[in-house]
Fold this protein.
Amino acid sequence: MRLTLDAPLDMHLHLREQEMLDLVAPFSAAQFAGGVVMPNLIQPVDTLARLRDYRAAILRACGGASFHPYMTLFFREYSREELIEARGEIIGLKLYPAGITTQSEAGVSDFDRIGPTVALLEELGIPLLVHGETNGFVMDREREFLRVYQWLAETFPRLRIVMEHITTAEAVTLLDRYDNLAATVTLHHLMITLDDVAGGLLQPDLFCKPIAKTPRDRDALRQAVFGGHPRLIFGSDSAPHPRHKKECCGCAAGVFSAPVTLPMLAQLFEEAERLERLADFVSTNGARFYQITPPQKSVELLRTPWRVPELCGAVRPFLAGQTLRWSLDEGSRGRE
Ligand code: DOR
Ligand code: ZN
């Protein structure tokens, strides 16, 4: 059995830089027509010059494979002139609360000051992508942040806002209250709960921000995604860290799911008897909300078992060593 996906997109992706970029970009380029690239490099991508250099490095790292990097600028206060100049080269601005996750120290520490820049985004039709967590108790951070989403959605009704990597039932509920909200959902948050991370021996490869939540939350995500919610968009949040940064005191947050994304998603949708909805989640919903026309590229999956490698270079992938029911058709890799 074969499954063909037209222009699948990964709408939340960490590609890093230098050797790590060279290692991880080909996994995404083999499976997706494009992806939304996060700007949280060691030096955040917050100028157009840096963004252009980064985009060129990504294209080099993809080698011959066709992959459209949809670039984001790291949120700070921007002038109208800066945003007008950037508009044609970005898909949005990515807002991180200061210090909330990997390389986000330069993020927002005072939300009372973001209004003018956000108003410009609304006026210029540039989407706002948000890592929505407070610095409260770790299990409550996303729920506590929902009032910020609500404020944004009400104050800027024409602004397209993406609630990134949602993990809670309440975030799903909020989506239905405002048409200008969409949300990305990761593969791992459809699969794991806090129990998988810390219920037995600690699993550093599953530690990420936002932390995986309760079975009730995971079920709400699954129900909404498999139910075909039109504003739920696939975004892997694949976030590679070398093993020595995961298997140590002070484990870095991030799940490296890029090598397994489409095969495992096909398996999940098949198990839910909703395989016909996979294309909406990975192709249609994102393109519609962002109003983009991705490059032509069809990606083929085969219903042939495939064993996930234990390691990809220095990084351990999500589901390492497990056998998945679907695999990428190597023969059709990135056919255009
Ligand atoms: O777990 C995470 N890792 N969450 C994020 O928001 C950032 C990411 C990273 O860049 O490592
Ligand atoms: Zn992320």
